[in-house]
Amino acid sequence: MNWYPQIGAGAMAQFPLHRKRQWRAIANVMESGELVSLPDSTGGQIEWRLSYQELTDVEVANLTGLYGNSSGGAIPFGFVDPFANLLGWSEDLSQAGWQTGQLVTTGGMSDPVGTQRAWMLQNTTGAEQLLSQSAGLPGSYAACFSAYVRGESAGTIGIIRDGARINLPVGQQWKRIQIGGRGTSGAIQATFSLAIASGSSVRAFGLQVEAQPWPSPYRPTGAASGILEETRFSGDLAVTNTAPGLSSCQVTLVSRV
User: Fold this and answer.
1) pTM, whole model, 2 decimals?
2) CATH code, residues 104-225
3) pLDDT band at 38 (very low <50, low <70, confident <90, very high)
4) Secondary structure in 3-state letters for the chain
5) Domains of the chain: which residue ranges?
């Protein structure tokens, strides 16, 4: 599958951008004149209107190359919602999407925003344990994984995307940690993890993955969403040269959801 190209250091879009969510209903008028209308759960779509300024020649080539490979709007490709937290069930680690290893997980703990939505991660084993979730994000995409963490005592915590890892100190004050960058070349999914040392207890809150290099404000999630594998161009792709080596363009996409 082809994927919509990121720009710059790994952004999906530039501001301002427009996202319009549309729902569809199927209506039938009976011979009696009665109107029957039902929601079409598979007919929804999102329209994206993206405006770019100061694109480099390489970025323009990536966009026009995808447009050509997609035969305009004929062939779908993958697109990632620039607004989305790509992790599913960010506040319910008991859901099947989370891999907890031998960690003891307890919900309903106090968090840095004054509610009771954090989770305690206790590692009572003799080896490091991981809290992990995978997402269908290609390895070539830049992404940022972030979380708020607090230790019951001073120690370290690892934050991981695929083979990249950062070890950071953790203490009794809440702090937001993050890891950003691209994943494993050629991979069709990415795995994001927190590594809890043997004998350690850490509270975690606000787990978030975004298709960009740096974190934005935390957004809680239910079922995983935001990776849109049925996206098409809508209309023409027009590119305007604005300076030597720089261009602007407007792109309209439609994603089936």
Assistant:
1) 0.92
2) 2.60.120.260
3) confident
4) CCECCCECCCECCCCCEEEEEECCEEEEECCCCCEEEEECCCCCEEEEEEEEEEEEHHHHHHHHHHHHHCCCCCCCEEEECCCCCCCCCCCCCCCCCCECCCCEEEEEECCCCCCCCEEEEECCCCCCEEEEEEECCCCCCEEEEEEEEEECCCEEEEEEECCEEEEEEECCCCEEEEEEEECCCCCCCEEEEEEECCCCEEEEEEEEEECCCCCCCCCCCCCCCCEEEEEEECCCCEEEEEECCEEEEEEEEEEEC
5) 17-82+228-256, 104-225
